[in-house]
Design goal:
Layout (H helix, E strand, L loop, with lengths): L1 E4 L11 E4 L13 E10 L4 H10 L11 H25 L16 E4 L8 E4 L6 E7 L6 E4 L5 E6 L2 E8 L2 E3 L4 E6 L7 E7 L5 E7 L26 H5 L9 E2 L20 H12 L4 H4 L9 E2 L30 E2 L4 E2 L11 H5 L23 E10 L4 E4 L10 E4 L3 E8 L5 E5 L4 E3 L9 E2 L1 E4 L3 E8 L4 E7 L9 E7 L4
Parallel strand pairs: 3-6, 5-13, 17-26, 18-21, 20-28
Antiparallel strand pairs: 1-2, 3-4, 6-11, 7-10, 7-12, 8-9, 8-11, 12-13, 14-16, 15-18, 18-19, 21-26, 22-25, 22-27, 23-24, 23-26, 27-28
The structure holds copper (II) ion.
Copper (II) ion (CU) binds next to loops.
């Protein structure tokens, strides 16, 4: 299951896309009695250029869940004065909001299934007892969806068009550009609702699966809106839990000073001393020479130094995360000093669902390719790339450099390398590489799943392997339409036969 869409301007937002289903040449390992294509999207009657212009001027415009006085009293009751004060002070210092989950949401968008609004409630038929394959495509410009079908479990059989080992879940997150194929087995003669709520719970897309075109199932209420936490900023939990360290782990960029940043008040007891001292050095321009060598008008993607150990295929990167210099870069307003591993994280707003609702939520760490890994070589080198941005200016970039100012990332034809993405921002970015597979390192070297789009959770890191098996110039970018102008690189595979 694939899809196509325009890459010109914001045409994709206006509906220039469609599904592609490729039947395998060999017998399909997935057997189903019938199948339906389910295309999710976010529609607005406004011109996408107008939305973008609004975000550039007022990045919080579509966030109507800013903290209120009522929230303050609740925080005071639950956390006490000291913790509440620390927490509020931190968010204010960063000029950010912990409810900033989606840039644009249900205020501007109507969420669609196959072009139909929730009021239309698009219908798909089945007969009780059948196995139904749903080919789910997120063709939205800006919206991540959390999808479930109350009353039915879903067996994931393919991700991004590639067969994976069966994994049965009740709910999964799907980012723009991702596709998942799932099997459902409705045994009862009743209707079901396919329910896809937006990541910030500002709206939903829905459809009906039913044996009878007249029937309709109940539409569930949306889940609680998530709030960002320290871990979403790549902070160290243990350090954060200590009073007085509320702003120590997250490092605002000194180029965009929050005004009252007070290093003297940091509690260094639990912090990584080496990281902290290096960070301070870099503020003063005393970055160690080894890192100076990698600087090139500000920042660029850096290959891990040759003395750093390169872990074998499947294992993920073991390299220490270091941050490129960011002095005087208004495009970067924060860095994840201690990024968590994003592989096993279902994502913000889904982490509590197992405990609270008993739902099995898909995690990337559960994805294993159905067939054997084709290229079993270990990576020869690692490329660390930071996803960066300035939330309040609505500027997005990689390694602090926007596309217009960036050099291409050069790959040698035939090489096998590891890319480590570090998300320094508090947004969830689905990163899409054209032309080459992104082979997600989920831990089993012989069963590495091949994806074309990888979600990078806020404040986290994730790694995948790439075989440079196609010469050419390839786009490499965040698949959120309005992040794309900056968070974009050309990947150029050179040498070999074209
Ligand atoms: Cu993005």
């Amino acid at each position: 299951t694939y899809w196509y869409h325009s890459h010109s301007g914001f045409q994709e937002q206006t509906g220039v896309y469609g599904a592609i289903v490729i039947d395998p040449a060999e017998p399909d390992p997935v057997q189903a009695d019938r199948e339906h294509v389910v295309v999710l999207s976010d529609w607005t009657d406004q011109a996408p250029e107008a939305l973008y212009a609004r975000l550039k001027k007022q990045s919080h415009y579509y966030n109507r869940r800013e903290r209120t006085v009522g929230d303050l009293w609740q925080d005071l009751r639950e956390k006490g004065l000291s913790a509440t004060w620390q927490d509020r002070a931190m968010w204010n210092r960063m000029r950010m909001s912990d409810s900033d989950i989606a840039d644009i949401n249900g205020l501007a968008y109507t969420f669609l299934v196959n072009g139909h609004s929730p009021d239309d409630n698009w219908r798909a038929l089945f007969k009780a007892g059948e196995t139904v394959r749903l080919r789910i495509i997120n063709a939205a410009a800006m919206t991540l969806f959390d999808l479930r079908i109350p009353g039915l479990e879903m067996t994931v059989v393919a991700a991004d068009g590639q067969n994976v080992e069966l994994v049965t879940v009740d709910e999964f997150r799907i980012a723009p550009a991702e596709t998942y194929d799932v099997l459902v087995r409705p045994s009862a003669d009743r209707a079901y609702t396919l329910f896809a709520q937006s990541i910030d719970r500002s709206g939903y897309a829905c459809a009906t699966l039913s044996p009878n075109s007249e029937w309709q199932a109940e539409i569930p209420a949306m889940d609680h809106a998530p709030r960002l936490h320290h871990r979403d900023m790549g902070m160290d939990h243990s350090a954060m839990a200590m009073a007085g360290a509320a702003h120590a782990g997250h490092t605002p960029n000194p180029a965009t000073p929050p005004g009252d940043m007070d290093h003297g008040s940091m509690n260094h007891g639990k912090m990584d001393q080496r990281d902290m001292s290096r960070d301070r050095d870099s503020h003063a321009g005393h970055r160690p020479p080894a890192e100076m060598d990698h600087r090139h008008h500000g920042m660029h993607s850096r290959t891990v130094p040759s003395d750093a150990p390169i872990a074998p295929a499947g294992a993920g990167s073991r390299a220490v995360i270091s941050h490129p210099a960011s002095e005087n870069n208004p495009g970067v307003d924060m860095q994840a000093q201690m990024p968590t591993n994003g592989l096993d994280d279902p994502g913000i707003g889904l982490r509590e669902h197992a405990q609270r609702y008993g739902r099995r939520v898909l995690r990337y760490s559960q994805l294993f390719n159905l067939g054997k890994t084709l290229d079993r070589r270990d990576p020869e080198r690692e490329l660390a790339i930071h996803l960066t941005g300035n939330m309040s200016r609505y500027m997005w970039s990689m390694d602090g450099v926007m596309f217009d100012d960036a050099e291409p990332i050069l790959l040698r034809f035939g090489e096998r390398l590891r890319i480590v993405l570090i998300n320094d921002t508090m947004m969830t970015h689905p990163i899409h590489l054209h032309g080459l597979w992104s082979e997600l390192e989920t831990g089993e070297p012989l069963r590495i799943p091949r994806k074309h789009t990888i979600i990078v959770q806020p404040g986290s890191k994730i790694s995948y392997l790439v075989s440079a098996d196609a010469v050419g110039r390839w786009a490499y970018h965040c698949h959120l339409s309005f992040h794309m102008p900056g968070m974009f690189r050309e990947v150029r595979v050179i040498g070999g036969a074209a």
